[in-house]
TrEMBL record:
It is found in: Mitochondrion inner membrane. The keyword Mitochondrion applies. Keywords: Membrane, Mitochondrion, Mitochondrion inner membrane, Transit peptide, Transmembrane, Transmembrane helix. Pathway: Energy metabolism; oxidative phosphorylation. It is a single-pass membrane protein. The chain crosses the membrane at residues 40-59. This is Cytochrome c oxidase subunit 7C, mitochondrial. The keyword Cell inner membrane does not apply. Belongs to the cytochrome c oxidase VIIc family. GO terms for cellular component: mitochondrial inner membrane; respiratory chain complex IV.
Amino acid sequence: MIGKSSLFLRNTFRSLARYHDDGGVPGGNLPFSLTNRYKLTAYFVLFFGSGFGAPFLILRHQLLKK
C-alpha cells in the first residue's frame, strides 16, 4: 500500500513539474518583450553593436595608451 501511494505521489509531482506552464506562446521564454518593435530593435543594436565594436574600442585604447 505504501509503495503504491509513493509511486502515485512521485508520478503526480513529476507531471506537475513537467506540465506547469501552458506554453505555446511565442517569445514566452525570452527575457525581453517582443511586443514593442523599437525597444527590441534597440536591444539588438546594443547587443550586436557592443560585440562588434568592442575590438575596435580596445584597439583604439591600446594605440592611444602611452
